[in-house]
Write a structure and sequence with these properties.
Oligomer: heterodimer
Pfam family, one (chain B): Response_reg
Order of helices and strands of chain A: HHHHHHHH
CATH architecture of chain B: 3-Layer(aba) Sandwich
GO biological process, one term (chain B): phosphorelay signal transduction system
Protein name (chain B): Response regulatory domain-containing protein
Structural class of chain B: alpha/beta
Radius of gyration of chain B: 13 Å
CATH superfamily of the largest domain in chain A: HPT domain
Number of helices of chain B: 5
Distance between the termini of chain B: 10 Å
Organism (chain B): Actinophytocola xanthii
Number of strands of chain B: 7
Keywords (chain B): Phosphoprotein
Distance between the termini of chain A: 60 Å
């Protein structure tokens, strides 16, 4: 320290002042980083510093739920709950209609599920529903399998959305 | 006093979304799932607007349109659907519609249609 000071003493006064100011500022900044709790450092606008950022729900990037974007969180949650309940029920009814060879029921139920899908903005699921609506007796089972897969994917995204935003 | 709408759709999710959108625009909303129930509501209550899906369990939205037209003060009737092109509806029917909506209905489309049907200051 004494050596550092003697080094400064041989410098012009304005330079000595600058070194001292720099030393003080660096020390104060270092102490503040050490002393402040992490929550105070993680202010909005510093998200890049988050060690484990939460991945954005996949649904947001696919446009799913975009049709619900202007609903308040409680309304959106009610719609998503209704979708999960009704779609599970409709899938059971669809499988029963297919097993019993009731083509009219199959088309009606697929149409209703297509309406729910479109209301959510789930276009891939809506297309799978349309494929069942327009299927012949022979290809209905295959298309119903595709519909079930598409529905499972959407329900998975609904559950991820609900977990990510419990009030959504 | 808020305006009153009747939403008719057998799909609960579509009905719910449309109802929430309307409530967000300060409307009072009643909902039914089929045309006979809709006719009963129309007999009992005055509505300022009726929005119906085309495909219904007991028939079509056109049955609801008939019920609206029987009312002493028929409300504007809007048909909403995701299955048919409106070009496939007879002109005789499309001429009686106050509006047409295609699923998924966005808030902006709904707002724009309501502004057209109920211009500011129209009561």
């Amino acid at each position: 320290m004494r050596r550092e000071l003697s080094f400064l003493e041989s410098r012009p006064s304005w330079l000595r002042g600058s070194f001292v100011a720099l030393f003080v500022l660096t020390t104060v900044y270092g102490i503040s980083l050490w002393a402040l709790p992490p929550s105070a450092a993680e202010r909005p606008g510093r998200r890049e510093a988050e060690p484990n950022p939460k991945p954005a729900p996949a649904a947001e990037s696919t446009g799913l739920f975009s049709a619900l974007s202007e609903l308040d969180p409680e309304a959106k949650a009610e719609v998503l709950r209704a979708f999960v309940e009704r779609s599970a029920e409709d899938l059971l009814l669809l499988e029963r209609a297919a097993a019993e060879g009731k083509a009219g029921d199959l088309r009606f139920l697929a149409h209703r599920l297509r309406g729910s899908s479109l209301a959510l903005g789930a276009t891939a699921l809506a297309e799978a529903c349309l494929a069942v609506e327009t299927s012949s007796d022979d290809d209905a089972p295959t298309r119903l399998t595709a519909l079930r897969d598409a529905l499972e994917a959407v329900v998975g995204q609904v559950e991820a959305e609900t977990r990510a935003r419990p009030s959504a | 006093m808020p305006r009153r709408a009747l939403v008719v759709d057998d799909d609960a999710v579509s009905r719910l979304v449309l109802s929430h959108m309307l409530r967000g625009l300060d409307w009072t909303v009643e909902q039914t799932a089929d045309s006979p129930e809709a006719a009963a509501r129309l007999n009992a209550t005055d509505f300022d607007l009726v929005i119906s899906d085309f495909q219904l369990p007991s028939g079509t939205g056109i049955d609801v349109l008939h019920a609206v037209e029987q009312c002493p003060r028929p409300a504007p009737f809007v048909l909403v659907t995701g299955i048919i092109g409106y070009s496939s509806l007879p002109t005789e029917v499309t001429g009686r519609l106050a509006g047409q909506l295609t699923k998924p209905v966005s808030s902006e489309t709904l707002r724009s249609m309501l502004r057209r049907l109920f211009p500011a200051g129209s009561g």
